[in-house]
Each structure stands twice: as C-alpha cells, then as structure tokens.
Amino acid sequence: MAARLDDLDRKILRALQSDAGQSLDEIARKVGSSKTPVWNRVRKMREAGVMGPPQVVVDPDALGLEACFFVLIRTSEHETEWQARFLAALKARPEVQEAHRLAGEIDYILKVRVANARAYDEFYQALISEVRVFNVTALLSMEEIKSSLALPI
C-alpha cells in the first residue's frame, strides 16, 4: 500500500534524492520549512518504510569496475529448492548489483558490474558451478546513458 505523502513530504524526498548528504538546514531552506518539521517528517518517513538507510553512490569507473553486463537467464528449473539456491548464489555475489525475475521468455535479468570480460567470465563460471541454468546471454553495456535511483515523485 502506498504511503500517504503531502506536498512537503514530496519536496523533502526530492531534495534528499538529489543529495542525501545535505544538512537539515539546507533541506528546510529548499522546501520552505524549518529544521524541526523537516527532521520529524524524515523520521516518520523512515519509520514508515518510505526511505531506506542512506547509501553512498560510488563511481564504478573510479574503482576499476568499468564493465557492466546485463545477463539474461533462462532456466528449465522452477522448483522451490532450485530457486532458493539460485537466489542465495545471487545474493552472495557482490558483482550482482540488481536481479529481477521476469515475465516472458527470459526468467531473470541481472546487472553485473566487473572490471573486464575476464572478470565477467570468472563470475559466470562461478555462477553456473553453483546452479544449473538452461541458457545465459550476456550483453555488454557500451555506454551508460542514464542512471538514477531517484523516483518520479
């Protein structure tokens, strides 16, 4: 169920999405409020699960993780035990930034960030040694055109 947010809550969220490191004073100034009401609203939105814990966005290129692969996985296995092993394998791999179960011909799509093609192959070999998959297609992103965690609020 969607949380009930008023205009001020949305302004606060937009400000935090653009820069979560801002001080409460800066956010209050931007949204036209004072520090205490902003702090109370942020606390309530955190308690309601509207916001998760703050995270730092790290530049992957600065760390040498220059290759981004989108990995399409088809499986012939749909049993609960296989799914549990597969999900555990994905969660244990720090290279997997995102994993989605899909409707349609492809069962899963992964966003995998690694240094290069050799590192991707190591990831791939480790994954298929842990769980059996029917088909894997890896697509190398040539250029990241847009990347945002901000939601349209």
UniProtKB/TrEMBL annotation:
GO biological process terms held by the UniProt record: regulation of DNA-templated transcription; response to amino acid
GO molecular function: sequence-specific DNA binding
GO cellular component assignments: cytosol
Family matches, as InterPro entries: ArsR-like_HTH, AsnC-type_HTH_dom, Dimeric_a/b-barrel, Tscrpt_reg_AsnC-like, Tscrpt_reg_AsnC/Lrp_C, Tscrpt_reg_HTH_AsnC-type_CS, WH-like_DNA-bd_sf, WH_DNA-bd_sf
Boundaries of every HTH asnC-type domain copy: 5-66
Pfam (any one): AsnC_trans_reg
CDD domains listed in its UniProt record: HTH_ARSR
Keywords on record: DNA-binding, Transcription, Transcription regulation
Gene3D superfamilies: 3.30.70.920, Winged helix-like DNA-binding domain superfamily/Winged helix DNA-binding domain (1.10.10.10)
Name this polypeptide is given: Leucine-responsive regulatory protein
UniProt source species: Jannaschia seosinensis
Gene: lrp_3
